[in-house]
Known about the structure:
- By secondary structure, the protein is an all-alpha fold.
- The protein has nine helices and two strands; from the N terminus they run ααααααααββα.
- The protein has helices spanning 6-13, 16-33, 38-59, 64-67, 72-86, 91-98, 102-115, 119-146, 175-179, and strands spanning 148-149, 154-155.
- Helix 3 (38-59) packs across helix 7.
- The longest helix is centred in the last third of the chain and has 28 residues, at 119-146.
- The model has no long low-confidence stretch (mean pLDDT 81).
Amino acid sequence: xxxxxxxxxxxxxxxxxxxxxxxxxxxxxxxxxxxxxxxxxxxxxxxxxxxxxxxxxxxxxxxxxxxxxxxxxxxxxxxxxxxxxxxxxxxxxxxxxxxxxxxxxxxxxxxxxxxxxxxxxxxxxxxxxxxxxxxxxxxxxxxxxxxxxxxxxxxxxxxxxxxxxxxxxxxxxxxxxxxx
Length: 180
């Protein structure tokens, strides 16, 4: 019989409310560190997914998902995406386009649904978004003035810049506006 690591055994012993608090912490942390690099963008949802799985395992009946009247639309949505990927002209290219977004686009709504239970939770997440947008915008202004990225600790590459007149922050493209 496989032995679970000690940290996972400790997580499974936590009460559902403590797991929800841990999920909220990791989700907020994911929001704040998202612009700092690809590793954070990939690892954040993975960590949240593990905790979300534990929350669903320990107390699924108290989660918002089973009480959501339109929860079956998620299954329909995932089936549509899967069918469009499988039956596209270039299946391999379609899967390579969608695979980086599987954890971010498809898992984060379920995490957010679990995290936002009260107005206070929503305000805390909005503060985290505002803080992230603020430091990312300040980094973009710094880049524009000095030509140096504080977050990446590197000079701005003029050859790679999409549009030097647009403040991109450390995300390196138009995604700062999308993130805001």
